[in-house]
Amino acid sequence: MAASYxxxxxxxxxxxxxxxxxxxIALWSVAYSFVLAVAVFGNLIVIWIILAxxxxxxxxxxxxxxLAFSDASMAAFNTLINFIYxxxxxxxxxxxxxxxxxxxxxxxxxxSIYSMTAIAVDRYMAIIxxxxxxxxxxxxxxxxxxxxxxxxxxxxxxxxxxxxxxxxRRTICYxxxxxxxxxxxxxxxxxxxxxYVLPLVVMGITxxxxxxxxxxxxxxxxxxxxYHGQLRAKRKVVKMMIIVVVTFALCWLPYHVYFxxxxxxxxxxxxxxxxxxxxxxxxxAMSSTMYNPIIxxxxxxxxxxxxxxxxxxxxxxKVSSYDELExxxxxxxxxxxxxxxxxxxxxx
Length: 348
Hints:
The protein has a single domain, classed as Rhodopsin 7-helix transmembrane proteins (Rhopdopsin 7-helix transmembrane proteins). Helix 3 runs parallel beside helix 5 (184-216), helix 5 (184-216) runs antiparallel to helix 6 and helix 6 runs antiparallel to helix 7. The chain has ten helices and three strands, in the order E-H-H-H-H-E-E-H-H-H-H-H-H. Strands 1-3-2 form a three-stranded mixed beta sheet. The protein is mostly helical. The protein is globular and about 70 Å long.
């Protein structure tokens, strides 16, 4: 998000005191451009893998699809704009995009983390209560719509109060909270709780219970001959999702701490090195959008096969018959019973 200011205190810092040398801007440009390229390209491939292959169109994967879409969108619409504004201290993009620039990151992050929360709950139900009905495609679509609707409601104040102002030597984009209202810090605390603390607590509880079940006891409903194979598959899935969640948590923690700290202590915003701190925590937060495709590719055979197909034009990428089989629809000769067990144990 861009800087927040009280509407009655906007006349200070009319000049840009955070001018950087060209070499430093060049280094930050490379870093942010790398995040943009990897995040957008990687998440678009994830979306293609899920939509182009019937075997990948599972209820849980639709939450992954939503996660990939929100990450790709935030990387495309906010990463470089955030960098340009933070590096130059000058807003070049007009009032309409100023409102979108402040509004969309909160919306996107909310959609991302609650997609991960929905996956955690889905895994909990599949492993702890395998005999209970799973989410249908219609219910899954409804959950995704609700996630985005709640995200829009939460981020709406940033859109409503965002504006630009032309000062003597520069133009700024800021959140002009109402006069005599000091709610920016409270708002950041609410956002931190709703889009960081609360979902991480829910995921921590669900994955702890699932982990204790997978590594410490019998899985309810599993007594088939291939029990150990299914157990290994479920453990791999949970490990991968825990890595996804921990990566997200580590990337966004400094960002939330930064906004709460600067909201509580306004003098920090005038500190000599605060711009470099902000660029660092913002880069780390934005980089969260690029890690998931890498994690999927490294830890899941079906996504790895999909990435190989996407890069098969590269001379050093070889797509084997096993890779092609990974993304084919399940064989028609499977019995109904084995299909039910696969749907309960398979994540992708």
